[in-house]
Design a protein that fits this description.
Pfam families: DUF6351 (PF19878). InterPro entries: AB_hydrolase_fold (IPR029058), DUF6351 (IPR045556). Keywords: Signal. This is DUF6351 family protein. By secondary structure, the chain is α+β, with helices and mostly antiparallel strands. Among the domains are: 103 residues, Immunoglobulin-like (Sandwich), CATH 2.60.40.10; 181 residues, Rossmann fold, CATH 3.40.50; 133 residues, no CATH class. It is 24% helix and 19% strand. It is built from 18 helices and 29 strands. The strands form 7 sheets. It has a 12-stranded mixed beta sheet with strand order 11-10-14-15-17-16-18-19-22-23-24-25, with helices on both faces. It has a 5-stranded mixed beta sheet with strand order 2-9-8-4-5, with no helix packed on it. Strands 1-3-7-6 form a 4-stranded antiparallel beta sheet. Helix 6 packs across helix 8 and helix 11 packs parallel to helix 18. The longest helix is centred in the C-terminal third of the chain and has 20 residues.
């Protein structure tokens, strides 16, 4: 009871979903994103008023009996909301205030737009902790009955095991002490169900032999009042539900009392769309709050594709996450596409010309730590519209890169089924980008016109003039079906504009409003597509949009790092992950507890930063921790041992923000190549007859972000949701 009162105060301080006169607060979601017919409501009683003075109604229905007194607030889970608008009215001794709740179907959509079709269910493939599955789907929206299982952590070996039924606990029952200082049996309640066509999972310490039944007003001995939302990696086109969620049985989190939640459509390898991920996260979080009560905060966690989701949700749908811990990070999905496609084009050009290229010369032209990193992209992801051919063993190779769960007859074929599902990464963003009505193809934004591949390497003398010219002559592009073409690729202008205006390219306008701890391992000279410079790309965008990035802290390690504590990924620096978890917890607690007035959210974030996050942090191989400002120049104790590299676009002259999808052009100038033979200059000028990239200017199509909480009623059309 006391915990709930504290949490309510914290949520009000965070400014979530407040309504008229601050008397009525929707705790479970925004008032306009309610789903599945229920919402958790708090009513602040005026001083001197009691429960008997209160009446709450939805339309003409009295729901006062749903409310329980907690401190100076009445808390109630209001059920039975009709689809669409529901007016909830609170009356205290003749004085009324109200809030309009907009209820949506449990299957969505709320703001992500028309559902992707086809869409294949996988509830019968989703494994639960006891080895069973959710069973066959019950309908076309992939729903299945909710299942609650209990597992315990064995004191012998530390494995999670199914908890036997009954009141007698197993002899190897482990115990754990939470951040609240409570020692409890290490039993985890795992709830798995379906919502928004995804499979969600929620895990938290819960002893069924001692704890009262879950409810928004229950008291829990094991839960520390905080929650982590776990996001999974990868990046593909979607078209299926997914058979795993982000990590939820995470020892380093659960053992300290954190609740952990996720869903299959918060795994970028299944969803591909950050908007669908944001919508699903909002609905899963709503379900959690209606089940257990409001957490003090929700921290985002996850690496690679999981980092993309965190960055984009934080920037475009603020309020879902209160702080984020992206690992092996990228600023977003679509600004990564040029890098990956360039790798495939450069690999083809190296092999098709007259010049001989060493691996070191290829590396220099690509800007990476090793050419094998680019080769790894080529292996994993051939051109972006043939995305992820090798990234998942169940993705069909050959004539289609769709996941094998999607019937071949439903997928694109140039002759047999030209309107079939194109399992490319742009298709995942169809509602934001729009599509060609003649072909059904989603508008695409890959462009390499004017890009001078290997420019910095040529000027540095790392490759010869002949190599530089021939590379740019032969690099070419891809056609709509992912086949090489002689001409370079040209982006669709609508795709370019919507990428920026609708927030698919993350310009970080709102990333200074919450704390960020960016986790980054160091691959050295080993191939790793998670380039360290992507963290610097994000920071450069935050600085460019906000004038500084004091709320963005990079924590790096001398060896590769697991993207989630206890995830099982190899790491010599599990301590770094725990450090980030506890520091983010401290940071968020500082923010929630600080009742001072600040001129902005960003100012409050910076004022409450823990002292040992005053600068960036790196962990050496011996676990020595160094606090040092990041240095792209690769200087200092951290920079010299954990160097940054670039990527093909940056080596061609793109800025550190790396957010130019299609460059503006300037005329070709022979004087820019003073030591190049005239015949080679003439050949190069023929390649760039329309001009070369002018990276001093923003991307073609750049527009300021249209706003946060955009909804997509039709493909290519966005409508801002009403501000709170």
């Amino acid at each position: 009871m006391k915990m709930l009162t504290v949490l309510l105060g914290s949520i009000l301080c965070l400014g979530l979903a407040a309504a008229s006169a601050q008397e009525v607060t929707v705790l479970s979601s925004r008032p306009d994103t309610v789903s599945d017919g229920d919402a958790l409501i708090a009513v602040a009683l005026p001083v001197g008023e009691g429960r008997s003075d209160l009446k709450v109604s939805v339309g003409d229905t009295d729901v006062t009996s749903s409310f329980t007194l907690q401190g100076r607030s009445m808390i109630g889970l209001v059920k039975g909301l009709k689809p669409g608008k529901n007016k909830l009215t609170v009356t205290v001794r003749g004085r009324s205030s109200s809030v309009v709740l907009i209820n949506h179907d449990r299957n969505g959509p709320i703001f992500s737009g028309p559902h992707q079709q086809p869409f294949m269910c996988e509830t019968d493939r989703f494994k639960l902790p006891d080895g069973s599955t959710l069973g066959a789907p019950q309908d076309a929206d992939c729903n299945a009955p909710t299942k609650v299982l209990f597992v315990y952590r064995s004191s012998s070996g530390g494995a999670f095991k199914p908890l036997p039924a009954g009141t007698t606990l197993p002899p190897d029952m482990g115990q754990t002490t939470t951040l609240n200082g409570r020692t409890v049996n290490y039993i985890v309640r795992v709830e798995t169900g379906t919502i928004n066509r995804s499979i969600y999972q929620m895990a938290m310490l819960f002893d069924p032999t001692q704890d009262e039944a879950p409810s928004p007003t229950s008291t829990y001995k094991g839960w520390n009042g905080r929650a982590v939302f776990s996001f999974g990696g990868g990046a593909t086109a979607g078209y299926h539900q997914g058979a795993i969620a982000g990590d939820t049985l995470v020892h380093d989190m659960l053992s300290r009392g954190f609740a952990v939640m996720s869903s299959s459509l918060n795994v970028m390898a299944f969803v591909g769309s950050d908007v669908v991920s944001a919508e699903t996260a909002s609905m899963v979080k709503e379900r959690f709050i209606e089940t257990f009560g409001p957490p003090k905060y929700v921290m985002g966690w996850g690496g690679s594709g999981g980092s993309m989701q965190q960055h984009l949700i934080a920037n475009n749908y603020p309020g879902i996450l209160d702080g984020i811990v992206p690992g092996a990070s990228f600023p977003d999905l679509y600004s990564l596409v040029p890098y990956t496609v360039d790798c495939a084009l450069m690999a083809k050009a190296f092999d098709s010309g007259q010049q001989t290229w060493t691996d070191e010369q290829k590396r220099a032209a690509a800007g990476l730590n090793t050419w094998k990193t680019c080769a790894q992209w080529v292996l994993f992801f051939t051109p972006e519209w043939m995305w992820a051919r090798q990234a998942d063993p169940l993705i069909r190779a050959g004539d289609s890169n769709c996941h094998s769960v999607i019937p071949r007859e439903l997928t694109y074929d140039r002759l047999r089924n030209p309107r079939g599902a194109r399992c490319d990464i742009y298709a995942a963003g169809r509602n934001a980008l729009g599509f060609d009505p003649k072909t059904g193809q989603t508008y695409r934004a890959y462009d390499n016109v004017g890009v001078q591949y290997g420019l910095k390497a040529y000027h540095a003398g790392a490759i010869s003039a002949e190599q530089f010219v021939e590379l740019n002559e032969n690099v070419g592009g891809f056609d709509d079906d992912g086949d090489f073409q002689v001409a370079r690729s040209v982006a669709h202008p609508l795709a370019l504009r919507r990428m920026f205006e609708y927030g698919r390219i993350n310009e970080a306008e709102n990333l200074d409003d919450l704390p960020i701890i960016d986790l980054r391992g160091n691959p050295g000279r080993g191939p790793d597509v998670h380039d360290a410079v992507k963290s610097e790309n994000t920071r450069a965008r935050i600085v460019g949009a906000n004038g500084g990035a004091a709320g963005h802290v990079m924590v790096r390690a001398e060896a590769p790092v697991a993207t989630a504590p206890g995830s099982g990924a190899p790491s010599h620096h599990a301590s770094m992950n725990v450090f980030a978890l506890l520091k983010m917890d401290e940071w968020l607690n500082n923010i929630v507890s600080d009742t001072r007035h600040f001129p902005s959210k960003a100012a409050k974030v910076v004022a409450n930063k823990p002292a040992d996050l005053a600068t960036d942090v790196c962990f050496m191989a011996d676990d020595t921790r160094i606090n040092e400002a990041s240095s792209l120049g690769n200087s200092g104790s951290c920079g010299s041992k954990l160097p940054y590299f670039e990527d093909p676009r940056m080596t061609a002259g793109a800025p550190l923000t790396n957010d130019v999808l299609k460059c503006q052009l300037r005329p070709f100038r022979a004087v820019d190549y003073p030591n190049m033979a005239p015949a080679l200059v003439a050949r190069l000028q023929a390649v760039f007859s329309t001009g070369v990239c002018d990276y001093s200017k923003p991307s073609v199509g750049f527009r300021p972000l249209k706003g946060t909480w955009l909804s997509y009623p039709n493909p290519g059309v966005s409508v801002p949701m009403a501000p709170l």
